[in-house]
Amino acid sequence: MKYLVILFCAICAIGQAQTMNVHLKDGQTVRYGLSDIDYVDFSESESVADRTVLVYINGENSLNAYIDEELEEMMTGSRQIGDNNLLVYVDRAKSGELPWLGRIYQGELTDVVNLAEMGISNQDEYSTDPKVMEAVMRYAFENYPSKNNDYGLVLWGHASGWLLADSVAYTNAARQRAYGVDSGSNIKRDKGKWINIPTMAKILKKLPRLRFIFADCCNFQCLETAYELKDVAEFIIGSPAEIPGVGAPYDTVVPAMFEQNTFYSSILDRYAEQRAEGLEVPLSVICTAGMEKLAAATSQVLQTIVPAFNGAVPDMDGVIHYYYTYQYFDANDFVRKYAPIADYEQWKQAFNDVVVYRCMASEWMTNVRWDPYYSDFTVTEDRYGGVSMYVPQVSDYWTYANNIKKMGWYRAAGYPEVGW
Question: If we measure between CA atoms, which residue out of 166, 182, 205 comes closest to residue 125?
Fold first, then answer.
């Protein structure tokens, strides 16, 4: 649901002139509005940080109204991260402005440089273009290296998990296409270009292996996506469901991102604190080191489960699901419902080695009314896995049943062997 709740925030933003300090190379400080940033060259890096985190804001879409508030929160949080590198790449719906990269340091935005000054392009390129994404990330990590080779990536924008389109595909199906979306015309709408997760994985394989990917976007946390990204990131943090348009509370999440060993649990805990404001979000952390073993365990348990369906699709009534068009069923709840107890317990061991931390939500904000689309299940601790997986359904669109075959998880988890 990060593509909703725009109007309210836009109204609240009217008349609130937010500003920030931008440090120039010659030592001068200029005060700019968050919507009127001037571009300057990177200054020489004085130190090498323990960790570098890049927040990739793909906001040239309906989420544009949230960007200024998110940057303010990040600046607040940056006061607690010492000399570590918090970088932000911003592509938003503003005519005449090229996407830009900057460092947020001790509460202020510094070293801002645009695509042209990075030597990438003189035009407002699609930030979902694989070449642009790779060039921006390479520039960021090379100019702000981590002495420990310790890097994190935050994906901010819209997403739809494993669902596919042609790479850098142009579509107005805002809820059905991977990660993005970039309108390409500086307008606040969700018709534009997206990037598929397999394509993103190819980009990230050319860069330093990431300590974590934190997906602050909808429906990202699924086994299909995690399997594609297992070789490029150690941990994947996100939600299997829709999330509120306001996303993460970065004033508290930013310090959590720079904790040495407890970062992933702290990110979830800080995110979950928004429950006090009525914003429940189901969240989890995936440790990708166990993905191959989980795929093998899933293949084994499916060979026990699927024959009992006698060629029919599983009855998923009552199983936790994370979207009203039923591509994202809770992996744990599905296996728990159909596998014999001994088989489930064996599979669950592999699952727990992958899903190492989770925060449950009994309900969450959605693009449709909870009732009737989500009222067929109850979320409990023993049922909630916090990660989704694809299970064939009669109502499947033809493209879903075929696109799943293009994901590595499809074969690794033994779907063809059971006729899926």
Answer: 182
Structure tokens at 322: 């994370």
Note the pTM of the prediction, 2 decimals.
0.85
CB atoms within 10 A of CB 231: 12
Report the amino acid identity of residue 223.
L
In the chain, how many H helices and how many E strands? 13, 17
What pLDDT, in 10s, does the model give residues 183-241?
456 554 556 676 889 899 999 999 999 999 999 998 999 999 999 999 999 999 999 99
Question: Residue holding tokens 């299909």?
Answer: 224
Tell me: the pLDDT tens digits for 21-58? 433 333 333 333 333 333 333 334 455 799 999 999 98
Give the span between the Cα atoms of 26 and 131, in whole angstroms: 32
Within 10 Å of residue 352's Cβ, how many Cβ atoms?
13
Sheet strands side by side (includes 100-105) = 29-33, 19-23, 108-114, 100-105, 85-92, 52-59, 151-156, 210-216, 233-238, 283-287, 355-359
Cα–Cα distance, 222 to 162 (Å, whole number): 7
